[in-house]
# Entry
Amino acid sequence: MKLDVFTLFPEAFDWFRSQRSVQNALSQGNELRFFNYRDTTPLKAGQVDDSPYGGGAGMVLRVDVVDAALQAAYPDGPPRVVLLSPTGRLLDDALADELTAEPHLAILCGRYEGFDERVHVHCADDEVSIGRYVLAGGELPAMVLADVVMRKLPGALGHEQSAVEESFSQLLEGAPEYPHYTRPAAYRGWGVPDVLLSGDHEQIRRWRAKQSQARAEQFERRPE
Ligand code: ADE
# Structure
């Protein structure tokens, strides 16, 4: 898959793109590209934003700037364009699966007070939120979205089974994952369930399914 991120701060992604799961995904032929709105702005002196009509605090990302960036990147027409916004569709595992199935995605990061409304209406296919709180920009949400999507791509995780059998995945019927333990088997009197040390794989499978189910019930009782 091709994942394109439009941002004013491509350098904010330096750490993210060096992560193992991202590197693995890239080595499998996937692509992660960055486009700086400033590089293609039709305005003088790299201007990308402006004060809002009607007055008010803050600056707004201009529609002509965002549109110019999309046209420069996609002369033959854009792929599915996802705009990051605190009021968008909440990102969950199902939405992540849906986006991972796309061959090509463009992600628009906002800054300042956000985008001119015409970007929402005319330039984006979807709006996605990582939670009902307002961040200073779309870069962190873009990393969250790129992370969840890229680790679902075949070959991104060392162990193929990991992404399939983790919390909220279809294989666990949307339930949270069972608990994990590793060495030491006893620490400060905190033990590991005997069944996990038994070597009986059928018992372990049943225990894990039960734990996962119990966590699902607990999860459903959470007020949010
Ligand atoms: N931009 C600012 N806050 C955001 C959020 N919570 N989700 C997505 N994009 C955002």
Remarks:
- The CA atoms of residues 3 and 32 lie 5 Å apart.
- The first strand starts at residue 2 and ends at 7.
- The chain has two domains: 2-150, 167-221.
